[in-house]
Amino acid sequence: MRVQAAKRLRVVIVGGGTAGWMMASGLAKLLPADAYDLTLIESDEIGTVGVGEATLPHIKLFNDRLGIDEAEFMRATGATIKLGIEFVGWNQPTDRYIHPFGVFGEPWAGVDFQHHWARARLSGIDAGSLQDYSFAVALCRAGLFDHPVVDTQSIRSSFSYAYHFDAGLYAEFLRTWSNARGVTRVEGRILDVARDGESGHVTRLTLASGDGIEGDFFVDCSGFRSLLVGGAMQVPWCDWSHWLPCDRALAVPSGSVTPLTPYTRATARKAGWTWRIPLQHRIGNGYVFSSRWCGEEEARETLLSALDGPGLAEPRLLRFAAGRRARAWEGNCVAAGLSSGFLEPLESTSIFLIQAAMFDLVGLMPRPGGGIDPRLSTEFNRLFEIHYDRVRDFLILHYMANSRHGEPLWDHVRSMEMPDSLMHKLDLFRESAAAPDYKLGLFSRDSWLSVFEGQGVMPGAYARLADHLPLPELERRLSDLRGRIRDGLSGMPTHADFIAGHCAAP
Ligand code: FAD
């Protein structure tokens, strides 16, 4: 008896920006090719948002999962290494600290490092800053980089890294990759979205050419337009601009300068902050600001005077609002990327959120011929909320814990009412040195620690278990750790030398 082959599920991805092509390549790699047909529609006329150069270490997992060769990818996208973000002037105007991709210290006697550090400080030991116990911070300050080693006994295993890259080139790279693996690309502007009268599901997209594309399941990667989930399905928007008031960005590339720093710089300004992201062939710069406290001309002057190389184009203005859709999965549509939400560029979380949506979707993807079980969308939306809400709290922390008195934006964010979930985290850290330690999503405990300390939030107590280590022993261990970090730098190549060697033509 012949078994009839199950019908394939027709998945249509709307949009070919970073979100669309990350979705397409991830689904092409991870879903069984004989069960799903993947089509991506993008419009050359509309184009992409064209920004988004800084990433988080998770992007390496994404690339590795696809089997992408790191050197090939770095050559194709002009990528450099990102070991963290240097925050300048976010607490006091003269302060600087690094949020590193790596751990602070190591646990002793089963107790997390920050408790020992807090105890040392509260006991009068000159323990310095948490920053002194991070190998990634030391690498940033010295401008060095080499791949982390596998041996967990070595200090050189205590960090991870991400990339700065040209997001447009990354989307092109993934487009070529996806096309070679069976994703069909359709160029054209979608003019009409048809829905089934009974289920409300999207059934067909009509292009300006008059052609129609039918599908069973749709992934909305149409950027800020949110054509399907925000548009056709009318899923409401949760506005968070009262917590994250920046709503404009001016972006401009500038020429490369030396040294090639292995980190992003985020400098607080009167009405927001500027970014500086070094790529191999240029530096990406931008001013993220609140239109309530700064006009476009003033923002332009602030941005141009912050450049440390010649500007290569006219600054480009982008408008946005912080928030997310109430649900990312509605009916037979899932939003990913800007169409699902945006939390401003601070801490570069957008590309991570695309990646998280892709992996969550693969895990919950409806099977061909089985309809769409509403429990799948409920679970996807639960994960989506967790991802966005955790990032939101972390970003708000950077603003609200500031000492920039007398500047209207900074006075406003310092005195605004914050989410209860963030208030709880702050109180807990102040009372016990405990920091969030999520198994899912962003951000890690060490990320929270770096921003707590950097923004002047200090613990007044610590876990009692830390008292088991005799104080002279604690002092010796702290000093030993600082020495191991210093010694670990010896012989490491500069970031520029690493890039030149690693990315040399094969
Ligand atoms: P887009 O790039 O806008 O793509 C939308 C796609 O949909 C395009 O292909 C478009 O042609 C298509 N489309 C839209 N309407 C139609 C239609 N009617 N018919 C056919 N096609 C259509 N993220 C980070 O992770 N790190 C950063 O450092 C970072 N910096 C940022 C700085 C700024 C100022 C901003 C605004 C964002 C930043 N982001 C950053 C976010 C990042 O840019 C986006 O998450 C990422 O580029 C994904 O965008 P997207 O693919 O969702 O949308």
Automatic annotation (TrEMBL):
Q: Name one GO molecular function term.
A: monooxygenase activity
* Family annotation (Gene3D superfamilies): FAD/NAD(P)-binding domain (3.50.50.60)
- Which InterPro entries does the entry link to? FAD/NAD-bd_sf, Flavin-dep_Halogenase_NPB, Flavin_halogenase, Trp_halogen
One of the Pfam families matching this protein, by short name: Trp_halogenase
- PANTHER family in the cross-refs: FAD-BINDING PROTEIN, FLAVIN-DEPENDENT TRYPTOPHAN HALOGENASE
For this entry, the protein name equals Tryptophan halogenase
Its organism's taxonomic lineage begins at: Bacteria, Pseudomonadati, Pseudomonadota, Alphaproteobacteria, Rhodospirillales
